Amino acid sequence: MPVEGGSSSGSTSAARHPKQKRKAHSLSIRRTNSTEDRPPGILRGDMLEGQDSKLPHSLRNNLLELFGQIEREFENLYIENLELRREIESLNERLTGDGQAVDGGDPTKGALKAKASHSTSQLSQKLKTTYKASTSKIVSSFKATTGSRALCQLLKEYIGHRDGIWDLSVSRTQPVVLGTASADHSALLWSIETGKCLLRYAGHAGSVNSIKFHPTEQMALTASGDQTAHIWRYMVQLPAPQPPPDVSAPCDDDQDSSDREEGEVDGDGPCEVPTIRVATATLKSHQGVVIAADWLVGGRQVVTASWDRAANLYEVETSELVHALIGHDQELTHCCTHPTQRLVVTSSRDTTFRLWDFRDPSIHSVNVFQGHTDTVTSAVFTVGDNVVSGSDDRTVKVWDLKNMRSPITTIRTDSAVNRWVKAAVAL
């Protein structure tokens, strides 16, 4: 701030002259110890009378009030430090009289530093609270309030896998079934309504990491840790809805029914689940675990993502490799295709995800999306021209395909985001 008063040096006065010229265009804040020290009837806004400012009167008053709060907080901090110093000096005198001494040349240094750090932290927190309160109209929070927690209820369990489930998908053709991919080297198809296992695919020699259904036919695509992706056909018939259990039936009948259902799921009884062991087509050009696979629009091509840092595009009819999508610096974690356009998005441990454009047969462009600070675990298309990405950096980001420089929305979570699954309804 400009310093009032004269100077004995002409050069010093000349040096201050430009500052005095700019004084009319700056906001001057006069220090006052408290509101009680001002003459009666003088408000904060009256202190700036006669000064040329473009700020509205109400905003200037708010600024004065805010700086007054800062001044009072520092005054309180200064008083607390003085009191603490007197207490420490008194304690040090007693310790010295008892033949003891506080470690260090300055006995008050460590305690004062800790106290000052604590007080400064409290001041910083108060300032942040004041700032957030004053800017609540432009700062939004994605954390749900206490009264808006989502209530979830278990509707159906699908029990049958012998190891962890990595992925699930719902068919897009009739009959509508649920597919699950598991580390037990199998994929299972389920009746959504009854929870009954309808079919098992056991053609992989490793963990089944993903499952996706053909958009128009009864075909499934699975990716596996055996470095391959399989395409296989299925035919299932949904069971009739089960009537409510008869509570008056004997217990032996209930036990037999339970044993029979378990046998159907596990394939251990006489009524074992139908099993497919041979794939219609095997896609095997990767040199590492195939972590995900998906159908391109139309269902005539598929894309696979692997830990060998590449994604491959295949022809379904011939199982031939069409393109190797290379560019990621580390292992791929997921891949997803656009529901209506020939677009593919791949995510990776290199903290990026890439958009591959195959709409023009002669040009295959790629765009790199940067913004995460840890592994991008998945990226999926939503309705419109948006992509949603999840990461181990505990954030979810929404991107516009037309502007990949920065996300349009960032949502912070309490833990890493393992996988994004798009629901049937739009986001």
Automatic annotation (TrEMBL):
Annotated region (Disordered) at: 1-54, 242-271
Name recorded for this polypeptide: WD repeat-containing protein 37
Entry-linked CDD domains: WD40
Q: Gene3D superfamilies, per this entry?
A: YVTN repeat-like/Quinoprotein amine dehydrogenase
Q: Which species?
A: Iconisemion striatum
Which compartments does it reside in? Cytoplasm; Nucleus
- Skewed-composition ranges (Basic residues): 16-25
Q: Where is the composition biased (Low complexity)?
A: 1-13
Biased segments, Acidic residues type: 251-269
Q: Where are the WD repeats?
A: 158-200, 201-232, 283-324, 325-366, 369-409
Q: Keywords of this protein's UniProt record, alphabetized? A: Cytoplasm, Nucleus, Repeat, WD repeat
Would you indicate the residue range of the signal peptide? none
Q: Cellular component GO terms, alphabetically?
A: cytoplasm; nucleus
* Pfam families, A to Z: WD40 (PF00400)
Q: Which PANTHER family match?
A: WD REPEAT-CONTAINING PROTEIN 37, WD40 REPEAT PROTEIN 12, 37
